[in-house]
Write a structure and sequence with these properties.
The chain is mostly beta strands. It is 7% helix and 54% strand.
C-alpha cells in the first residue's frame, strides 16, 4: 500500500480494481487503513508537461475501509498521453499503488465497438502504480492473427471504433495492398461479419507486383458502411513497440523472402525481399 503521512495525516491506500467503463468513467476501488478525511483528491499528472487535473474525493466516514470512486474522464478534458495517478491533500501527494493489472482483452474489445475520437485506458505501470493511457481513436482494422498458409498471406481481427454492431450481419469488404504509388495496388475480397474480419491474398501476386523484388506493402481494409479505408494495425492491447517485440517467420516465394512486420506506430506491413 502507498503510505501518506504528514500534518497529522497518515494513511495506507491501494487500488484493488481499476477500469475505464464504456461510458469513459474511471471506476476505482480503494482499500485504505483509515479514513482519508477532508481535502483528499485524486490527482492526475501528465508526463512530460506536468499538467494536472484534481478531483475532490469528499470526506469518508470513520467506518470506511473499502470505497468505490467514479470519475468522468471526458469532463476533465485530458490531452492524449500518459497520466500518472496520485492521492493528494494540500501540498502532499503520493503515487497510487495498484494490484489490478488493468488488462482485459474482452473489455478492450467491447470498449472499441463504439465510435470514438478519444480512447482511455487504466493500467498498472512496471513499478506497480496506477496510470492512464489516453490516445486518439480512429477506425482501424485491429489485427489479431497473421500467418502464411498455402501460398497466401492471411489476416484476421476486428473492426475498432467504427460503430458497427458485433452481430451476424455481413458487410461487403476488400483487402487492398499499396506500395507507394497509386498504381501499385493489389486487392482481394475480404469477409466481414459484424466486426470480425478475415482476408487473404496470394503471395505470388505480391512478389510479382513488387518492383525490383524488394519493397514494402501497406495493407488496408475497405468495408461497406465505413467511410474511408481502415489501416491494419494492433493498437488496442498493452504491448508497445511491437516492431521490436514481435517477429514473424518469413515465407519464401521463388527465392524472395516475404515477412509481416509492424511499424514503429504498430501498423502492419508486408516486407518483400528484405
Amino acid at each position: 500500500m502507498a503510505q501518506f503521512e504528514g500534518e497529522g495525516w497518515r494513511v495506507r491506500v491501494v487500488v484493488t480494481d481499476a477500469e475505464v467503463t464504456l461510458a469513459d468513467v474511471l471506476s476505482l476501488r480503494l482499500a485504505v487503513d483509515r479514513p482519508l478525511g477532508q481535502g483528499a483528491e485524486l490527482v492526475l499528472r501528465r508526463r512530460g508537461s506536468g499538467e494536472e487535473r484534481r478531483v475532490p474525493l469528499g470526506e469518508w466516514g470513520p467506518e470506511v475501509r473499502d470505497a468505490a470512486l467514479a470519475v468522468s474522464l471526458a469532463a476533465l478534458r485530458l490531452e492524449p498521453g500518459r497520466w500518472d495517478a496520485y492521492l493528494g491533500r494540500g501540498a502532499q501527494r503520493v503515487r497510487l499503488k495498484s494490484i489490478d493489472p488493468g488488462f482485459s482483452l474482452d473489455h478492450l474489445d467491447a470498449y472499441a465497438l463504439a465510435r470514438r475520437t478519444i480512447a482511455y485506458r487504466a493500467y498498472r505501470t512496471l513499478n506497480g502504480n496506477l496510470a492512464l493511457k489516453i490516445s486518439e481513436a480512429r477506425p482501424v482494422a485491429e489485427v489479431r492473427a497473421v500467418w502464411f498458409r498455402e501460398g497466401r498471406f492471411e489476416v484476421t481481427g476486428l473492426l475498432a471504433y467504427t460503430g458497427l454492431s458485433d452481430d451476424d450481419s455481413r458487410h461487403e469488404a476488400r483487402l487492398a495492398l499499396h506500395q507507394g504509388t497509386p498504381d501499385a495496388v493489389l486487392t482481394a475480397a475480404a469477409t466481414v461479419q459484424g466486426v470480425r474480419f478475415h482476408a487473404a491474398l496470394s503471395l505470388c501476386d505480391v512478389v510479382e507486383a513488387t518492383s525490383a523484388a524488394t519493397g514494402q506493402w501497406e495493407p488496408s481494409l475497405e468495408v461497406e458502411g465505413v467511410p474511408g479505408p481502415l489501416r491494419l494495425g494492433a493498437m488496442l492491447d498493452d504491448v508497445d513497440g511491437k516492431r521490436r517485440r514481435l517477429h514473424y517467420p518469413a515465407a519464401t516465394v521463388d527465392g524472395v523472402p516475404v515477412r509481416p512486420a509492424f511499424t514503429a506506430d504498430d501498423e502492419l506491413r508486408l516486407e518483400v525481399g528484405v
